[in-house]
Write a structure and sequence with these properties.
Order of helices and strands: HEHEEEH
Helix content: 40-55%
Largest sheet: 2 strands, antiparallel
Distance between the termini: 23 Å
């Protein structure tokens, strides 16, 4: 394994966590959105990650190394939760409003784990840079 593979793996992890952060932030921002261009309430989004081998024809270690790719972003099915609020502009004739089915605590926990994963990948890049600099110093 070389330093470039390490940077590829960590870089793909950073990009994946950025997408995860953006979707969690979008879910939080739209937790009370009852009307979307598609119609109906906002539906929760979540990224689906997939590992992609760096070198499928290399050694056993090379085959085990993988970068993270975003396969797709899933949109939750379902109508959400209904609340009785006859004063809401999107209330039906009975006074019920369909709200997004987004759990704020779940989204906050997702944001915290995303931040930790992002930080771990950034630390790997910093350590890899330091190792490369030390190797260059030894060669001088």
């Amino acid at each position: 394994m070389d330093l470039l593979n390490t940077l590829d793996i960590s870089g793909s992890g950073l990009a994946a966590q950025r997408v995860r952060l953006q979707t969690a932030a979008s879910n939080l921002a739209n937790a009370r959105t009852t009307r979307t261009p598609e119609g109906g309430p906002y539906r929760r989004r979540s990224p689906v990650f997939q590992a992609e081998a760096i070198d499928p024809f290399g050694s056993e270690l090379d085959r085990a190394l993988a970068t993270v790719q975003i396969e797709r972003i899933d949109v939750a099915e379902g109508g959400g939760q209904t609340l009785y609020d006859p004063t809401h502009p999107d209330a039906d004739e009975r006074g019920y409003v369909t709200m997004p089915d987004i759990n704020i605590l779940h989204e906050m926990a997702d944001l915290m784990t995303t931040a930790r994963s992002y930080e771990a990948n950034a630390n790997v890049i910093d350590i890899t840079r330091d190792l490369a600099n030390r190797a260059l110093d030894i060669g001088r």
